[in-house]
Write a structure and sequence with these properties.
The complex is a heterodimer of chains A (116) and B (115). Chain A has no helices and 11 strands. Chain A is mostly beta strands and 116 residues long. Helices cover 0% and strands 53% of the residues of chain B. In chain B, strands 2, 5, 6, 10, 11 and 12 form a 6-stranded mixed beta sheet that branches. Chain B has a 4-stranded antiparallel beta sheet with strand order 3-9-8-7, with no helix packed on it. Chain B has a two-stranded antiparallel ribbon with strand order 1-4. Chain B is globular, with a radius of gyration of 14 Å. The relative contact order of chain B is 0.34. Classes of the chains: A mainly beta (116), B mainly beta (115).
Chain lengths: 116, 115
C-alpha cells in the first residue's frame, strides 16, 4: 500500500498570504489528522477529520482550518500567514474508526512552510 | 491533563552500544495508549510501537525493546547494539479515551550513533 502523501513538500509564502496544504491518506483510512511541528513548540495537534467531519480540534486560532473530501483526502488552510506559522506540517492517517485513541497513526513526509 | 516528558534532549552513543530513551507520561484516564515514533532527517514520523494501558508486558522486536511500567508511568525504549542508521529523533506519544485520536507528543530525544 502506498503511504500517506502530502503536497507540496516545500512552500514559501509572505506574511498576510494564505496557503492550502494537501494530504492523501493510506487507502482505506478515513481518519486524517494534522499536526504542526516547530522547534519551539514541538508537535502540536491541529485537527482530525473523519468521514468529512471535523471530529477534534486543537488549540489553534481560527486562521487554521481544514476539510476532508469524500475520498478521505484532506486539505488544511492557513489564512493571513504570520511569521510564527513557519513549520513542518504533518498529516497522519489512521485505520481507526472510533474515537478511543487506540489507533496508530501513519504520518506523511510533511510540508515545510516558510513564511517570510 | 495529558503530558509526555522526554527529559533526554540529546544522546550520543558509539556504535554497538546499548541506549535507553526515557518517556514519562501523565493522564487521568485509566484507558490510554502509548506510542513510539522515529523521525529520521527526512522528516517523516515512522511508527514503531503501540502499547495499551492494560498490557504491561514488555515487548522485543529485533534490536528494539520497550519497558512499560504503570507504577512509574514510564514507557522506556531500548536499542541494543546501536547502529548508525538508528540516528534520528525519537518521540513518545500518548492518547486516551478523553481526547480521542489526538496524540500528545513528548519533545523528542535526538539520538546520534557515532561510527
Amino acid at each position: 500500500k502506498a503511504g500517506v502523501t502530502q503536497t507540496p513538500r516545500y512552500l514559501i509564502k509572505t506574511r498576510g498570504q494564505q496557503v492550502t496544504l494537501s494530504c492523501s491518506p493510506i487507502s482505506g483510512h478515513r481518519s486524517v489528522s494534522w499536526y504542526q511541528q516547530t522547534p519551539g513548540q514541538g508537535l502540536q495537534f491541529l485537527f482530525e477529520y473523519f468521514s468529512e467531519t471535523q471530529r477534534n480540534k486543537g488549540n489553534f486560532p481560527g486562521r487554521f482550518s481544514g476539510r476532508q473530501f469524500s475520498n478521505s483526502r484532506s486539505e488544511m488552510n492557513v489564512s493571513t500567514l504570520e511569521l510564527g506559522d513557519s513549520a513542518l506540517y504533518l498529516c497522519a492517517s489512521s485505520p481507526s474508526t472510533g474515537t478511543s485513541g487506540d489507533g496508530e497513526q501513519f504520518f506523511g513526509p510533511g510540508t515545510r512552510l516558510t513564511v517570510l | 491533563a495529558q503530558k509526555v516528558t522526554q527529559a533526554q534532549t540529546e544522546i550520543s552513543v558509539v556504535e554497538k552500544e546499548d541506549v535507553t530513551l526515557d518517556c514519562v507520561y501523565e493522564t487521568r484516564d485509566t484507558t490510554y495508549y502509548l506510542f513510539w515514533y522515529k523521525q529520521p532527517p527526512s522528516g517523516e514520523l515512522v511508527f514503531l510501537i503501540r502499547r495499551n494501558s492494560f498490557d504491561e508486558q514488555n515487548e522485543i522486536s529485533g534490536r528494539y525493546s520497550w519497558n512499560f511500567q504503570k507504577s512509574t508511568s514510564s514507557f522506556n525504549f531500548t536499542i541494543t547494539a546501536s547502529q548508525v542508521v538508528d540516528s534520528a529523533v525519537y518521540f513518545c506519544a500518548l492518547s486516551d479515551t478523553n481526547t480521542g485520536n489526538q496524540f500528545y507528543f513528548g519533545t523528542g530525544t535526538s539520538l546520534t550513533v557515532i561510527p
